[in-house]
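Risk mitigation, structural track. In case the binding assays with NAP fail to produce interpretable data, a predicted complex structure has been prepared as a fallback.
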Amino acid sequence: MTEAITSETMVLPRRHLLTGMLAAGAMVGTEVVTTPAFAQAPPILEGKVAIVTGGTSGIGATTVGVLAQAGAKVAFNGRREALGRQVASRLRAAGGDVVYIRSDVREAQQVEHFVAETLERYGRLDIAFNNAGIDLPPAPIADTDITGFDDQIATNLRGVFLAMKYELPHLVSSRGVIINMASIGGRHAFPNIVAYGASKAAVIHMTRAAAQEYGKRVRINAIAPGAIETPMLERVRRDWRVTTEQLVAPYPMGRVGTPEEVASLIVFLASDASSYINGHVIGIDGGDLA
Ligand SMILES: NC(=O)c1ccc[n+]([C@@H]2O[C@H](COP(=O)([O-])OP(=O)(O)OC[C@H]3O[C@@H](n4cnc5c(N)ncnc54)[C@H](OP(=O)(O)O)[C@@H]3O)[C@@H](O)[C@H]2O)c1
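Fallback model:
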């Protein structure tokens, strides 16, 4: 039986990892957005090991699949255990080498354990996508709930700091890469989301500082998406009482982005194709705000 497994049959499952919506392109409103080339990637990350924080849904879950399709072994976390196991078994059934390790990015010991477990299982670390984040319903500063403020800073900012703290020693050894999740909300000031905006602006600053500290061994960049079609965007539409059309009106391309388009950027930043890009924040938003 072993002889029957040719290199061609070994490669096939990876091509099937992200079938369905992704294979044909994603529906965005009434438009079909063609899946970017990197989201249907050849195995350009073969032999690499990646960590994704917040991989149970949205951009993180899609990126776990696309990194696996590109050949990486991927460990991801998130707090929703049943969902994490479900995402992992779906991707494993399709041929990906991925593992879900339950952990909360706000808790130092859990992040340390997440990184240690990844090293224990896969033996190295090359790529870290520090993506986990939360949003809360909008409110002006005087009405902003203090616990909610603290939670957003703890997740979106402290969570990225903790991840980098425990990832960096391993990435220094492997000459790896970090991609931190910021947001257009960290580049432009929007009203009524002060904690979210401040946390993402701080992620951008921390990314630039980290690139100064580690530039000789680790490439560290941030991405700043605009409106991407995920469960978070569903909450934004509900909490802000806005339509998709209203949300995207100020952007030149006038549509939301897909998680696959973001995952494609992550594969690019994780690969040698971006070997001289370091310490930058890359917008992925259909064009800067009008
Ligand atoms: N969608 C957009 O338009 C947009 C735009 C700009 C930036 N972003 C950023 O993109 C990132 C992903 O968001 P998304 O849009 O994909 O939304 P999402 O579907 O809500 O995903 C958020 C992910 O973060 C995880 N997470 C939240 N708190 C966590 C914690 N304490 N520990 C570990 N994981 C945690 C969630 O997992 P659990 O709930 O299982 O813990 C989930 O997997 C966020 O940082 C967000 O700020 C999104």
